[in-house]
Amino acid sequence: MLLLAKLRRGELIYDLGAGDGRILIEAAREFGAKCAGVEIDPERVARLKERLAATKVEAEVIQGDLMHVDLSNADVITIYLSDSVNAKLAPKLSRELKTGARVVSLDYVLPNWKHDREVSIASAGLSRKVYLYLIRRAE
């Protein structure tokens, strides 16, 4: 996902539904990105913070509803959410993301958005799709 987004050193990535933090850890370690993870589940937040501490990765952890987080400063957004959540999230991303920002979604499309790239990958014996969206604004 991070390679597809062409994440660069110093860029700010938000992982929405950060779970165990693996995207944040990889983004910080391998790409030198600034990282923020949004997670609503308090138990997952606790595990995420423990994992970040254990791996000595610095990232902002936001416990809360991703629909209430300001994403306007994001360079990259990563998501692995459901069709229904993506449907609610798509208008927020359209409003808030700056030109040049990238959204990468695993398995689920953003409805009514045209992806710029679609890549098929094999993961744990499963065939999966990763979708890349580039934010453009009409001039």
Describe the structure concisely.
This protein is an alpha/beta fold and 139 residues long. The protein contains 3 helices and 7 strands; from the N terminus they run E-H-E-H-E-E-H-E-E-E.
Walk me through this protein's architecture.
- With 139 residues, this protein is of the alpha/beta class.
- The protein has a single domain, classed as Rossmann fold (3-Layer(aba) Sandwich), CATH 3.40.50.150.
- It has three helices and seven strands.
Question: Which descriptors would you attach to this protein?
Answer:
single chain; 139 residues; Rossmann fold; seven-stranded mixed beta sheet
Q: Low-confidence stretches at least 5 residues in length (pLDDT < 50)?
A: none
- For the secondary structure, the number of strands is 7
Number of domains: 1
The overall average pLDDT, rounded, is: 95
